[in-house]
UniProtKB/TrEMBL annotation:
UniProt subcellular location: Cytoplasm
Residues where ATP binds: 10-15, 127, 199
Region (LID): 126-163
Residue ranges annotated for the Adenylate kinase active site lid domain, each copy included: 127-162
Enzyme category, top tier: transferase
Originating species: Actinoallomurus iriomotensis
Domain writeup: Consists of three domains, a large central CORE domain and two small peripheral domains, NMPbind and LID, which undergo movements during catalysis. The LID domain closes over the site of phosphoryl transfer upon ATP binding. Assembling and dissambling the active center during each catalytic cycle provides an effective means to prevent ATP hydrolysis. Some bacteria have evolved a zinc-coordinating structure that stabilizes the LID domain.
Protein name per Swiss-Prot or TrEMBL: Adenylate kinase
UniProt-listed Pfam families: ADK, ADK_lid
Length: 217
């Protein structure tokens, strides 16, 4: 199957992408993985991307798209893949459709992880990071034994700026601006399926696999 996974920050896309890809024996392809592979491999696209990253600028769409095109052309992605983090907007979705059509391929399913904003804020704002070892704790789901102190190394725990509520809500606003049209685009294509992404990880995975089975039937 050829699948795109979408959902807001904090929806658990990375975790679910890993489980689903493993279950279906297809490669999980994330833009983060593609960027790291190109930069560490010192490819021409990686060098170009690094120029922007070193300046603190966003990598332009054309560079990202070129990397995705190359990755989807690799042998392991010919029979199926799961894309996480791409496309992020309608122009990218249209470009992806064109890339796949060049090799007579098309997406089978776009799986949307649905979770409300308050739940996202609860998940992300509860994270605390150790200044010393980098271990991430969660005040509700995985709290340290002693408040503010890392169980692993005794380091001080702090809340990163991007885990603060105001930052999270801004990210959610940006996501809605970009992804509401994207969801509509794929709904019009007849391949969008949404699942409830709240609850234990295992339950969300089962919902996702059930949706895949229904769609493939």
């Amino acid at each position: 199957m050829r699948i795109v996974l979408v959902g807001p920050p904090g929806a658990g896309k990375g975790t679910q992408a890993q489980f689903i890809a493993s279950h279906l024996s297809i490669p999980k392809i994330s833009t983060g993985d593609i960027f790291r592979a190109n930069v560490s491999g010192n490819t021409p696209l990686g060098r170009k991307a690094k120029e922007y990253m070193d300046r603190g600028d966003l990598v332009p769409d054309e560079v990202t798209i070129a990397m995705v095109r190359d990755r989807l052309g690799e042998e392991d992605a010919q029979e199926g893949f799961l894309l996480d983090g791409f496309p992020r907007n309608v122009p990218q979705a249209e470009t992806l459709k064109k890339i796949l059509s060049e090799t007579d391929r098309r997406l089978d399913l776009v799986l949307e992880l649905v979770v409300d904003d308050d739940e996202v804020v609860r998940r992300l704002s509860g994270r605390r990071t150790c200044r010393k070892c980098g271990r991430i704790w969660h005040l509700a789901f995985d709290p340290p034994t002693k408040d503010g102190v890392c169980d692993v190394c005794g380091g001080e725990l702090f809340q990163r700026d991007d885990d603060r509520e105001e930052t999270i809500r801004h990210r959610l606003e940006v996501y809605q601006e970009q992804t509401a049209p994207l969801a509509s685009f794929y709904a019009d294509e007849g391949i969008l399926v949404g699942i409830d992404a709240t609850g234990p990880v295992e339950e969300v995975t089962e919902r996702a696999l059930a949706a895949l089975r229904r769609f493939a039937a």
